[in-house]
């Protein structure tokens, strides 16, 4: 499941579920507004928070990448170990 971009945390959905409303200034956008437009609003109107959110997003993405890399390395290690054990069994059977 995808996690939302940090910028989206600064917007809430109205009760009719038709608009996104900025938590800082009450600016509102159609519910299907793309992330780029929300980022542009935040960069223009809430510059300090924008840069903090972008930094948090970079950290979040970096941590997610490292977790996936670790899982993949672990899977490779397990696979190599299984292959090694299989070869040992085959060698014992050949003897």
Automatic annotation (TrEMBL):
Signal peptide annotation: none
Pfam families: zf-BED (PF02892)
Keywords: Metal-binding, Zinc, Zinc-finger
GO MF terms, alphabetically ordered: DNA binding; zinc ion binding
InterPro entries in alphabetical order: Znf_BED
Domain BED-type: 9-47
Protein name per Swiss-Prot or TrEMBL: 19959_t:CDS:1
Organism: Racocetra fulgida
């Amino acid at each position: 499941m995808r996690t939302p971009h940090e910028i989206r945390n600064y917007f809430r959905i109205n009760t009719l579920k038709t608009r996104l409303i900025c938590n800082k200034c009450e600016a509102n956008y159609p519910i299907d507004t793309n992330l780029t437009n929300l980022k542009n609003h935040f960069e223009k109107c809430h510059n300090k928070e924008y840069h903090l959110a972008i930094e948090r997003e970079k950290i979040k993405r970096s941590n997610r990448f490292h977790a996936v890399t670790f899982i993949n390395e672990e899977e490779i290690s397990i696979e190599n170990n299984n292959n090694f054990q299989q070869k040992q069994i085959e060698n014992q059977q050949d003897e």
